[in-house]
Amino acid sequence: MVRPVARKTFRHSPSKHARKQSTPVKSSHKPVHILSRLRKQKRDGEYLIPWAPFARIVKDIMTDMSANFQNNDNYFKIQRSALDALKVSSEAYLIQLFEDMDLLITHAKRKTCMTQDFQLVKRLRASYGDPVMMAIQSENGRF
């Protein structure tokens, strides 16, 4: 029994006059489902930061502080309502920060958030007496 020999097949190149298939152009707009999801989040008013990681960070900061205070028990306890108050205020602060950055972005006629926007917001807020940004400025010495 003789096996057939494998031969190389040649592809025919498309003719010079053949038209290339055009690919559909993606729209630069956000899809409708993302916009509706954003509207739903605004309407619901739920927390944006997950509870467990936020609680972990707060407790970690509190244990660092307890080491500074030389507490005998070496830990602090925090009530759920106090943790919720911290969470609400920190989210409100972050939202305000990003809204200010968004104003700077639109003023620069861009759509991308850059580090220079954050640095400018920090500088402006420190000049108007924002205690958080003033603390960062005193820590680092400059922005």
Structural commentary:
The protein is mainly alpha-helical. The protein has a domain at 92-143. Helices cover 58% and strands 0% of the residues. Helix 3 (80-107) crosses helix 4 and helix 4 crosses helix 5 (131-140). The chain starts with 31 loop residues before the first helix and ends with a helix.
Shape: elongated
CA distance, first residue to last residue: 83 Å
Mean pLDDT: 76
H-E order: HHHHH
Q: Structural class, from secondary structure content?
A: mainly alpha
User: What Rg, in angstroms, do the CA atoms define?
Assistant: 29 Å
Looking at the chains present, what oligomeric state does this protein adopt? single chain
Number of helices: 5
Unreliable runs: none
**Record field, number of beta strands:** 0
Family: Belongs to the histone H3 family.
Pfam family, one: Histone
Domain Core Histone H2A/H2B/H3: 39-124
Protein name: Histone H2A/H2B/H3 domain-containing protein
Tags for this model:
single chain, 143 residues, mainly alpha, 5 helices, 58% helix, Histone_H3/CENP-A, structural constituent of chromatin, DNA binding, Histone-fold, protein heterodimerization activity
Question: What's the short version?
Answer:
It holds the Pfam family Histone. The chain has 143 residues and is mainly alpha-helical. It has helices spanning 32-44, 51-69, 80-107, 115-127, 131-140.
Q: Any chance you could write out the topology, listing elements then pairs?
A:
Blueprint: H1 32-44, H2 51-69, H3 80-107, H4 115-127, H5 131-140
